[in-house]
Amino acid sequence: MAQTNQNKWVVLAILTLVYTFSFIDRQLLVILAEPVKADLGLSDTQLGLLTGLAFAALYVTLGLPVARLADKGNRKNVVSASLAIWSLMTVISGMATNFVQMLFARIGVGIGEAGGSPPSHSIISDYFEPQKRATALSIYSVGIYIGIFVGFTIGGVLAQHYGWRVAFYAVGIPGVLLAVLIYFFVKEPPKGRFDPPQLSSENLTLSNVVRTLMGKKTFVFIALGSGFIAFGSYGAGNFLPSFLQRVHGVDISKAGYLLGISFGIGGGLGTFLGGYLADKMRRSDMRWYIWLPMVSALLALIPFGIYLFSDSLNVVVWMIFMVSALLGAYLGPAIAVTHSLVSARMRAFSSAVLFLILNIIGLGLGPLTIGFLSDLFQPEYGDLSLRWAFCGIFLSQTLAILFFGLASRHYLKEVLSG
């Protein structure tokens, strides 16, 4: 057991690195949006499609069968193969010469990444006992913001000095090497190690899993709340480099540096603290797993409004840091709540269903909607069109707060009933 306890932190670090690579590959196009737009002759709507729906469509739908494969088989092998696929497709993204080629390349990245997170969530839940899962899952989720930090800072510098195509090659090739590391050095833990024997030995069908999840009001509301937080995070986040370049006149390298610090570090700090504090606060009431993200989403509305309309670049950067930290608090607790509602053999699939809802609303619709609104407002507002397009996020955040509140009303009853 001592060896397992020691190994679990190594495994968590490796899986977090994998998640970091997924977000470097996923977000690289975000920081490269302006040069790619100019080179390929794209509109903001097409950029929103490439950074959102094109990726999300197969990412979320293929996540379901891949997660069921992981629940039944070797989860580590699924993660390794998926990483190799999305890294190769990132390299291919750098070869695109028109919108259609880039579209299919980003779809390919989405196909690969479909097998990343759900199996990793399940592995982590079998390495860490229930009272520490939100912390472990939040540490894993910090990979999102490490990836954003690296993608923004390195991508901006590479694009400015060597061109946007080189940036894709530089981050795709190391991912293939990491896939080999996963295959040989991560061990598959026993499924349901911390669960009662009767639960961990269940042979569950796909329909049973879906029926169980959809029968939990807590899950439905937590998934919808997470989706509308992600709508704002992806909707604004995927256009923040363009926002800084158009509205505040900074160059791509400086935009990458500023956002790497504010968005990347702020979001990473908030994501870790969200899970850590929720694990601590659960001792007084388990509903803090839901209340904490709800309160954080409410507080985030204030700095969000400030950074939209401030003319001071320094103020904008600090407010982006605060918004990112506050909105990052939801993910670890949301995954932990989901896993607490199901048995061990449902966990990878339950994460996939959570991410299906979260990413259809957030990643699929967020950037596409903001891009469409920006194009709609552009004739009247010019380079300020993104500022007014971002205002739609006030509505999505309000919906997220409402759904988290509804989830908290059902959680105790449903988690105790099993």
UniProtKB/TrEMBL annotation:
The chain crosses the membrane at residues 6-24, 45-66, 137-160, 166-186, 219-237, 257-277, 289-309, 315-337, 349-373, 385-407. Its main location: membrane. InterPro entries: MFS, MFS_dom, MFS_spinster-like, MFS_trans_sf. It is a multi-pass membrane protein. It is found in: Membrane. The keyword NADP does not apply. CDD domains: MFS_spinster_like (cd17328). The keyword Transport applies. It comes from the Bacteria. Keywords: Membrane, Transmembrane, Transmembrane helix, Transport. Residues 11-409 form the Major facilitator superfamily (MFS) profile domain. This is MFS transporter. It comes from Robiginitalea aurantiaca.
